[in-house]
Design goal:
heterodimer; A: mainly alpha; 2 domains; about 85% helix; B: mainly alpha; 6 helices; about 0% strand
Chain lengths: ~240, ~120
């Protein structure tokens, strides 16, 4: 028993633990998700996060020591944002042809998502630093962190909000669109990529190739638009 | 080999983006500038196959990359306990608003889609 404890103390302190746990739990939840025919509520990110949070609590592992391993996965977000150039480039003809409707939808959706988050949060009496962390929640996590920092929010909290936003979209969008009879896979995918970025886009990619392509397009557009418009909106937001 | 070459290209673009962002004090994050650099490079036919080989698997497993950040919720349990219900309400409502506005604007402005779904 003594040896087992020593072994655990050693293993849990090495980066191996965070990396192995993240990847193995994700592979498991992904298998369940596929087995359940991609039911939205069985979203693998959601259940992986829940399982890992419970695992950390049960084993008394701190987040920094978990992250020392998980950072290798986290690091890939940067190259993944760069890689969004590929689906954008592949769809360049379509993008040019439908530039106006797509840009208008991306701008309107992004503005409503951010604006309504801040407005509802303010109405519910959330503190300023939480509001500033909510504003960029529809942009993919790595970019949201940068925006939140500039707005006076908490970057780590902004990233969590961004992931939660992605999960809400991935889990509930199907029911919302079905109820309102929004059937076109392109429209559904584009909305998912705009309002719930990477996690939503990943969901769209699994469901329908057209939806996936439009989601990736929307994700790329949202990142560029948010990053471009942020400095223009920033002085205005700082008034609050 | 294409995958490795493509991955090296992605990292080179990201590094170029970071250098531009910091060097010129631009408000755009490094990876976003890297995306724009790569869009320019894709004009060259030689880079397309490697970029596709690296980008496709990376984007296919995009959701995995959000897990480490998502688990970070454990570091904010204090805030979650205090404002959890309200924060969840904000996230759910604003995400639905964003989804609906995007979908409705795009559908209204795309006649072909409106016909297809009518």
């Amino acid at each position: 028993m003594q040896n087992v404890v020593e072994l655990w103390v050693y293993l849990s302190a090495t980066p191996l633990f965070g990396l192995t746990a993240t990847l193995s739990v994700y592979v498991l939840t992904q298998a369940v998700y596929v087995r359940l025919e991609h039911a939205p509520w069985a979203n693998p990110v959601l259940w992986t996060v829940v399982a890992l949070a419970l695992l950390l609590a049960a084993t008394g592992t701190s987040y920094p020591s978990y992250f020392s391993g998980a950072q290798f996965i986290h690091f890939l977000l940067g190259p993944a944002v760069v890689a969004l150039a590929w689906p954008l480039w592949q769809r360049r003809a379509e993008l040019r042809r439908r530039a106006l409707p797509l840009l208008a939808a991306a701008l309107a959706g992004g503005a409503v998502a951010a604006g309504s988050a801040v407005a509802i949060g303010w109405a519910l009496g959330l503190p300023g630093e939480v509001l500033a962390s909510l504003a960029p929640k529809s942009v993919t996590a790595p970019v949201a962190m940068g925006i939140a920092a500039q707005l006076g929010g908490i970057p780590a909290l902004a990233a969590v909000f961004a992931v939660l936003t992605g999960l809400v979209g991935a889990v509930s969008a199907k029911y919302l669109f079905d109820a309102l009879r929004i059937d076109s896979p392109e429209v559904r995918g584009f909305a998912l990529g705009t309002a719930s970025h990477g996690v939503g886009a990943a969901r769209a990619l699994q469901v329908h190739p057209d939806a996936g392509a439009y989601a990736a397009l929307a994700l790329g557009l949202q990142v560029v638009l948010a990053a471009l418009l942020m400095p223009l909106v920033l002085p205005f937001l700082k008034l609050f | 080999m294409d995958t490795l070459r493509g991955f090296a290209l992605l990292l080179l673009c990201q590094s170029a983006g970071e250098a531009l962002s910091r060097g010129l004090h631009l408000p755009l994050p490094g990876p976003v500038l890297g995306l724009l650099v790569l869009l320019g490079l894709l004009q060259l036919p030689a880079v397309r196959a490697p970029v596709a080989a690296a980008a496709e698997p990376l984007l296919q497993h995009l959701s995995l990359l959000f897990v480490p950040v998502g688990v970070g919720v454990v570091t904010h349990l204090g805030l979650v306990g205090q404002f959890g219900g309200r924060m969840l309400a904000v996230i759910v409502l604003s995400t639905w608003a964003g989804l609906l506005v995007t979908a409705l604007v795009l559908r209204a402005l795309s006649p072909a889609d409106a016909e297809a779904t009518a």
